[in-house]
Amino acid sequence: MSKITSINKNIKLYRKKRKISQDKLSKLAGITLHTLTKIESGATSDPRIETVKKIAQALSVSVDDLLK
After folding, report:
1. Closest Cα partner for 51 from 31, 66, 34, 21?
2. C-alpha 47: how far from its chain's center?
């Protein structure tokens, strides 16, 4: 499994574990809903590290957790 596949699946997994909608997570992370949905769906093949950091912080996980 590629790191990109891991990131999008793990973001969705942690988001659902915390019962947070995509809209709420995008607001917590300070990114657009469009950006988040593209990352979660795998349409964005190489998300910026700053974006991944914001998402990780909003989910209260490490970037490493999202890369596993």
Report:
1. 31
2. 9
Report if residue 67 sits inside a domain: no
Identify the domain containing residue 30 by its residue range. Answer: 3-62
Is 11 a member of any domain? yes
Whether residue 68 is contained in a domain is answered as: no
Closest CA to 48 of 30, 35, 61: 35
Give the distance, in angstroms, between the CA of residue 64 and the centroid of all CA atoms in the same chain. 12
C-alpha to C-alpha distance for 46 and 28, rounded to whole angstroms: 21
- The answer to whether position 43 is within a domain reads yes
pLDDT (tens digit per residue) in 4-32: 568 999 999 999 999 999 999 999 999 99
Q: Is the Cα dihedral 55, 14, 44, 33 positive or negative?
A: negative
